[in-house]
Specification:
- One of its GO terms (biological process) is protein secretion.
- InterPro entries: GspK, GspK_central_sf, Pilin-like, T2SSK_SAM-like_1st, T2SSK_SAM-like_2nd.
- Belongs to the GSP K family.
- The protein contains 10 helices and 11 strands.
- The chain is α+β, with helices and mostly antiparallel strands.
- Helix 2 (125-137) packs across helix 3 (142-156).
- The longest helix has 68 residues, at 4-71.
Length: 328
């Protein structure tokens, strides 16, 4: 006759083995989670370190921009090869590169309105015309360009009355996921994606030419730093009067040391017969106030790309915005 205690011992052993197996699975899962948490913590620390390096790179660029402006307060030119040139920065355990560009040579989306407070932003018709002209110059259908220019101004202005062809809250309320207009200045040009009628294809065409400067002033185009490849930004100032090819030729013939006065510039044969509005004439600048600094940091396999906007109007120059680069 079988011993009952043997069955009990066998059942107890089986229970112990099952318990050990369960504990092993639990321990293995816990170790995996711990390893993942450790890697995530390490990655987070690496990202924070890379961002700190990017901020330091922007600060170094700010000092150099201050020196650039101080050396030639009357005009900002391309001398020294600073525009877009990669500058290596010393970074322990990695690499960092900074590039400085003229941050004012773009269409300022916030110039579509005038006013200083969020409660008093009104549509600026001249800027709307320029934005429409810019879009047409980069290949956007004129009717689409008109609607987008009006809708973008409506997005920023303080009132709720749409312009002809524009869009206010009632348009966005009909979207699958309803939302409202911002009724404030844009912080980043990428906000254009939220505007009615703006498709990814249109964004791809427009985004390289636009910016969101922290004021409502008309786009300050520096004819001493504007490159021939950016001729559309000058042609948009004189829609119907100046072609992109004419603007490109004008910029290609610029003196090496730049123009010394806007009077001299507007007296050039290429533009002397044109009739720009007074506020359009004043958009043409010889100095640069806004600079963009793009910093690319790679540390321990972690890559961070950040962009700083620097205001050099007063000395010392100051960083007014620092954030992730578009597309990074």
């Amino acid at each position: 006759m079988a011993d009952p205690s043997a069955h009990e011992r066998g059942a107890a052993l089986l229970t112990v083995l099952l318990l050990v197996a369960v504990m092993a699975v639990v321990a293995s899962t816990a170790l995996q989670h711990l390893a993942l948490a450790t890697r995530m913590t390490g990655n987070g620390a690496s990202v924070d370190q890379a961002r700190a390096y990017a901020a330091a790179g922007a600060e170094m660029a700010r000092l150099r921009i201050g020196d650039l402006v101080s050396a030639s307060p009357g005009k900002t030119t391309l001398r020294g090869g600073w525009l877009g040139a990669p500058q290596s920065l010393p970074v322990p355990g990695g690499t960092a590169t900074a590039r400085v560009t003229d941050g004012g040579n773009c269409f300022n989306l916030n110039s579509l309105v005038s006013g200083q407070s969020e409660a008093s932003l009104k549509v600026h018709p001249v800027a709307v015309t320029q934005f429409q002209a810019l879009m047409q110059l980069v290949g956007i259908d004129p009717r689409e360009a008109q609607r987008i220019a009006a809708a973008t101004a409506d997005w920023i202005d303080s009132d709720s009355a749409p312009q002809p062809g524009g869009a206010e809250d009632e348009t966005y309320a009909r979207a699958p996921a309803p939302y409202r207009t911002a009724n404030r200045m844009m912080v980043d040009a990428s906000e254009l994606r939220a505007v009615a009628g703006v498709t990814p294809a249109i964004v791809a065409r427009i985004l390289p030419w636009v910016c969101a400067l922290p004021d409502t002033q008309m786009s300050p185009i520096n004819v001493n730093t504007l490159l021939p490849g950016q001729a559309v930004l000058f042609a948009m100032l004189l829609p119907g009067q100046l072609s992109v090819d004419q603007a490109r030729q004008l910029l290609a013939r610029r003196p090496e040391d730049g123009y010394g006065s806007t009077v001299t510039f507007w007296a050039l044969p290429a533009v002397s017969g044109m009739t720009p509005l007074a506020e359009v004439q004043s958009q043409v600048k010889l100095t640069t106030r806004w600079f963009h600094v793009d910093v690319d940091v790679d540390v321990g396999g972690v890559r961070v790309q950040e962009r700083a906007l620097i205001d050099a109007q007063e000395q010392p120059a100051r960083i007014v915005r620092l954030g992730r680069s578009e597309g990074a």
